[in-house]
């Protein structure tokens, strides 16, 4: 404003400024008055930022501004109504039709080749695809919930080894992201990837496999201590015959393998089958409590308010396990907005990586390297460490992963500074030139990160198999644990346009606005805020950047 | 007066111990454990075929199980009238002869899981077959009794980002190379006010990383020639860490893939050779640092391989396996019982003769002198020692 005043050359401009100042003053007064009057008041900047920080990957200035005008209810309702049921980024072509992966007549070599294709080639394409969806989606909340269910019903490609089954499971999680939990649970019990992962396919009459039976109660619904060993045995019997048709790649009920005798589960007896068990699990009060607690830890705080939790769990239960009402109640709860619960959650690797790329609107040509980075930071999409999922919270951070996070963030800005933009102010390639090499075919996928309104600007083509193989053994033949080299192997190309990005902040004398947008709370280390790349890097390296 | 009080505080331990304690440097005074003794864990990724590593060459059942894969009698390196080493382990023969190498036989666990990723997780976390723990067994040990604060870290995993048995340890580092770590650690900055728990956690980690990087001063004048292969270079990185004036309690290195479903003979030959050369490098470098008597190197992997060979010149996933311990203080020789070659479980798998947690108990109790109660709580039950240290 000051610089404009200095440069004013006509009375007209002065008049316009006057009017703007008057409007702003009036708006501030109104906002203040309304702030004291009712619940339907506009949230304002800080609350809008908090809500978006928790429910999306990154809060953009324009989004915050738009949400700031809404009341909490209006904002939460908008988030919920924007939720999607399908991905919008084109999936790899092999997801569209099924072909049996391992056929009995295959030679050892053919089996190894098939395994390599599923694990290495398609495994990486799958991760790249989901990363692309997270980067480009207009509803980040949908992807966060999809990720939530992936972590809840944790299933790993390392054991399933059928990439398409993993893709279909992911589609299932998205379809029910904020749908009905009961319906989702029912679908999961018949999901081919889950049936393979927890050995449902080997659960036969007379030789039950208890793997799924145990986990469906311990980890998916009731929580430990709310069932007996005998319940596990009986539930396993009820699910006998729940299997996968390897030729069709679909659920198949094998009647001959099903034990249709009487079972006693939670003290009730009957000739229960798997569907009956799901019904029994949904009737159990512990289920709503268990799921609500997990949602709380993801969206509100690591510390649970037990009274509030019971209220929310009953909303969930009474609403027939619909997720929107319970999420609405949770996001409107006192605890969610409490200042003591701001900036108390650690970002997951997916949130950190996708969030950074979205926040700074990097243009990403190939999402695959970013999926690899998530893995290095401890979150291998489609490859959770075990059926318990990622422990999350503070466990995301140890010296290794924290340094790796900082190394990644440093590189995002450092390379740009050190590299030589072809034209000043335009995009500069952000690559490690030493590591680029010839091995990687370039730019099969050109993915433009969403603009302010969350719409994808361009998206042509998709990642091709050939580009994926070069990145190497996503999963080694010897198991799934081999890491994929060091962070140095960041071979992706991404571009940053500082001019365009800083244009979001027309009034750069308000230095606070930079951290108020990017960080969930005041910076811990950064003292001087600057509107340049070094300034952005400093903010990204501040410990506060790790939190949401 | 003061001194008398101090002595009486140690009264239960006896005056000799107390006096001794006073004479020791203060860093050790408060530390009844022995974390200054180094543990080197060597993971044989993908699961090594133990039957062709410690070969029961005199047993006719061996030849029957391995019609094409057997190591011929005239090629093996006999250790006794029953067992012999794979010829690629020839560099280890001096260690065996000097009693610095133990073969620990029949390690496994009940209800074995034959999936690589699940079974290595069981080994790394020290859990039961149907139990899911997220902390590594070493992490729990360090939680139970912390290594000295002066150490640059409690443990270091060399190579990738995977901390394996140190997963979730409070002060565990993963170092690909000392140079890279020192470069990366420059970004660590512990200053600032932590006004909530998460920030406290982050600033503590920044401090740990910075601290470790300040301690780490890579030695440049090694006389030891480290093998040029990947494992040999991991040994070099590990010894760089160990050579810091205040080192670490444990380092983890790994080699693989031993997952020899086909074409086993050549693959295993080459990997075992790397292993043997690397163990020799550990010995030489430790001797150079004057620490060989304070060094214990132990191999491990998720399971053994199937007793009976498959039709592709390889072996499939199995159960019980032999592991090895090396070191200047090791009580060499055969430990435990070799599983029967004739009485096999379903699917032609060996029946384990010792729980793998006996191996861990031996390390925690006999090598590091952790109190029995701590060892029991780390491993979830009491496991007897295997007597190799």
What does this structure look like?
The complex is a heterodimer of chains A (548) and B (389). Chain A is mainly alpha-helical and 548 residues long. Chain A folds into 3 domains: 80 residues, no CATH class; 180 residues, no CATH class; 198 residues, no CATH class. Chain A has 26 helices and 9 strands. In chain A, the strands form 4 sheets. A 3-stranded antiparallel sheet of chain A has the order 5-9-6, with no helix packed on it. A two-stranded antiparallel sheet of chain A has the order 1-2. In chain A, strands 3-4 form a two-stranded antiparallel ribbon. Chain A is globular, with a radius of gyration of 25 Å. The two termini of chain A are 32 Å apart. By secondary structure, chain B is α/β, with parallel strands linked by helices. Chain B has one domain: Alkaline Phosphatase, subunit A (3-Layer(aba) Sandwich). Helices cover 34% and strands 13% of the residues of chain B. In chain B, strands 1, 5, 6, 7, 8, 9, 10, 11 and 12 form a 9-stranded mixed sheet that branches. Classes of the chains: A mainly alpha (548), B alpha/beta (389).
Structural class of chain A: mainly alpha
Task: Report how far the terminal alpha carbons of chain A are from each other.
Answer: 32 Å
The mean pLDDT of chain A is 82
Over all CA atoms, what is the radius of gyration of chain A?
25 Å
**Amino- and carboxy-terminal Cα gap of chain B:** 41 Å
Radius of gyration of chain B: 22 Å
- Return the CATH architecture of chain B: 3-Layer(aba) Sandwich
Give me the side-by-side strand order of the main sheet of chain A.
5-9-6
